[in-house]
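Hi L.,

You mentioned the student needs an example of a multi-chain input paired with its predicted structure. This one should do, with 196 residues in total across all chains.
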Amino acid sequence: MRRLEHFPSKLRALVSRRWIGELNYGAARGEFEVAASIETLLNERKGASTVASSCRNRKTMSKTTEKITKTDQEWRAELSPTAYNVLREKGTERPFSNDTKNAAPGVYKCTGCGQELFTSDAKFDSGTGWPSFSQPISADAVEEETDTKFFMKRTEILCSRCDGHLGHVFPDGPAPTGLRYCMNGVALKFEPKETK
Ligand SMILES: [Zn+2]
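Structure written out for the whole complex:
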């Protein structure tokens, strides 16, 4: 487990007093959540673009999904500031800000482009404050990238259609996949299943 004091002084120096509580809470949840808290802080302090552009390698590339490309200006006009920060600048929303704990049956779609990403069947309560899923709706729906920000290796999850950043996947989820897709709620749009 990586606690705050184990982070390099450069990162520690960025952590203001009001964040200490969240970071200590995050430490109890594991190093990834600590990293997410620091990521959020960095985003608030200086904008995410400089942080997000570092050390990324495209790992997989869907060949079947037709890409949606828009200018930065178009994305800014369409998305809320928080959704823009997450989807286009790879930010992380604050935990417990957008996890609806919605147990109703339905589909979670990409806020950026409307592509179907997850079903309610795969959703579980991870206790992290971020909506968590054991698997995507299909293998084509998301893409993975290796993310080596903050001195650790994480697997980033993107929408395969608009390349929007959704969150990360971790190998500590429930059966049957053993995976935890830790998503930003603001990047997902819940659509309840139609009842007859
Ligand atoms: Zn999308």
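You could point out the following to them. The pocket of zinc ion is lined by residues 110, 112-113, 115, 159, 161-162, 164 (CB under 6 Å). The chain is about 25% helix and 20% strand.

Best wishes,
N.
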